[in-house]
Amino acid sequence: MSVTLASASPVTRIEQTGPADVRRLVTVQPGMCGPTALFAARVGDWTWESVSTVCGLDVFNAQDAQGRAAYLAFHYFRIRSGGHLTPERITFGDRLEVITRVFSQGRRSVLTLHRIRRLPQGATELDASFDLEEFHERPRPDCLYVENLNHWLTRGAGHTNVGLVHTPPVGFDHTRLPELPDVYSPKTPCRQARADHRFHDPATAHYTPSGDQLIVNHRVDVTRDINGVGLMYFASFLSIAEGALLELWRGLGRTDRAFLDRSLQDIRICYLGNADLDATLRLHLRLARDPENQHHERADILIQDTAGDRALAVASFRVHTAGPQ
C-alpha cells in the first residue's frame, strides 16, 4: 500500500506505506542541519506527523477530556549511527529517505522509530523494509536511527511547567498500533537512568573515567530554550548539553574545529521533568574513554533544576574523536 499524503513542496514527499508505517523523501534544508539540536528538532516534527498520520489524530491540536491542550512530550530520545552516516555529516541539499514505524506503549505513550538513509544521486527509492531487529541488533552502516518514546502530558493548575500530568487526549486509540515487545522497550533503561542518573550501556561498560567532574550552570533563556506553548523545548536540552560539552572540550585544550569534526555515534537523553522560565539549570559532566582506543569517548550528563536539585534529564554522548587528543 502506498498512499501519497502530501507533496506541496518539492523538498518533501510523505506517504503512508502500512497501518503504522510512514515513508518520507526529504531534501535537507538549512533549518535541519548543523547543530545536533536542529536535526533532533526536525526528527521530533516527523514523530508528531507520523503519529498524526497513523492514528488519525491531530497531534498538534490534541486536547484532553477537560479541554486542556495535551502534548506528545518526549521522554526518551536516542540518535544512533550504524557507523558511517552521523548527524554532523548531514548537510544542505542531501536527499534522504526516512522510514518511520510507530508502536503502542499503552494508552498514554507512543514509541516511534526512524531510519534515515542518504539517497544516491538520481535514486528515488531504496529498500523500505525495516524491523526492530535491525535497529537493536544489526544496524546498517549507511543508516542513522532515531528512537523516541513520548508520553501524553498536560499542564495541571496554573502556568507552571513543574508537575505536568499524564493524560491521553480525546480520540487517541493506541490499539490500532502494533505492540512493542518488552525486550525492545526503552522503559527499563529510562528507569535505570532515573534511579542512577546515568545510562547503563554494555558497549561502553569497560570505559575508564577521564579527568574530574565538570559542573556548568545555565540560566533558562526565554529567547532560545522555550517552545511555542511556554515549555522548555526538548531539543533545547540537547543544545544546552552540547554547550556544556564544548566547555569540557575546551578545558582539555581541544579546538572548536576538532569539536565539529567529532563523529557522534550514539546520543541518549531521558527527560524527567520540565523547568519554569526563571529556572537555573546545573549540568554535571563526566568523561570516560575506551582504554583500547583513546579516540572513543563517552560523556555522561545530569541536568538538574537548582531549585531543590530536581533532576530534569539524563544524557549520554558516545563519540569518536577525529585526531590526537
Automatic annotation (TrEMBL):
**UniProt superkingdom:** Bacteria
Q: Which Pfam families match?
A: LnmK_N_HDF
Residue intervals of the LnmK N-terminal domain: 23-200
Give the range the annotation lists for the signal sequence. none
Q: Which NCBIfam families match?
A: LnmK_bifunc
Protein's recorded name = Biosynthesis cluster domain-containing protein
User: In which organism is this protein found?
Assistant: Streptomyces pimonensis
